[in-house]
Amino acid sequence: MIQKRSTWQKTAVREALEATPGFVSAQELYQQLLLQGQKIGLTTVYRALADLAQQGEADALSSADSETKYRSCTTEHHHHLICRRCGVAVEFELPGFEAAAEALAGKEGFTQVSHTIELYGICVNCGVSD
Ligand SMILES: [Zn+2]
Ligand SMILES: [Zn+2]
Ligand SMILES: [Zn+2]
């Protein structure tokens, strides 16, 4: 199946992603779009998400046991605190760490250093037990 690369599809994917509080897989987002009555293919959703991630408009999170999940994101550097159960993500900054990491890499003679920090836990909502 050949699909034209059109912008409304990407816009629809971006909007659906922005409306989602946590990380979602392409499959989940595709289901949401279908429910909204969007005529969009799963392949298009995958491609749009990959594009958004590449352009820094979305975070891509891949874990060993599941498919890649995406989240609408600020393009500025930040880290994530992610709920293992519901996938909700909180963004945070660690200015002290940034400086320390830069100093350490510089000391070792490394350039173009980058990092990703993702902390996993159980969020307030999921942590409430009966
Ligand atoms: Zn983020
Ligand atoms: Zn949770
Ligand atoms: Zn950082």
From TrEMBL:
GO biological process, one term: regulation of secondary metabolite biosynthetic process
DNA-binding as UniProt keyword: yes
Annotated Gene Ontology cellular component terms: cytosol
Cellular localisation: Cytoplasm
Cofactor(s) needed by this chain: Mn(2+); Fe(2+); Zn(2+)
Pfam families (UniProt xref): FUR (PF01475)
InterPro entries hit by this protein: FUR, Fur_C, WH-like_DNA-bd_sf, WH_DNA-bd_sf
SUPFAM superfamilies in UniProt: Winged helix' DNA-binding domain
Residues binding Fe cation: 77, 98, 115
Keyword terms: Cytoplasm, DNA-binding, Iron, Metal-binding, Repressor, Transcription, Transcription regulation, Zinc
Chain positions recorded as Zn(2+) binding sites: 83, 86, 123, 126
Cofactor: binding details: Binds 1 Mn(2+) or Fe(2+) ion per subunit.
Residues spanning the signal sequence: none
Family, per entry: Belongs to the Fur family.
Subunit record text: Homodimer.
Database matches in PANTHER family: FERRIC UPTAKE REGULATION PROTEIN, ZINC UPTAKE REGULATION PROTEIN
Protein name: Transcriptional repressor
Originating species: Aquiluna borgnonia
Lineage of source species: Bacteria, Bacillati, Actinomycetota, Actinomycetes, Micrococcales
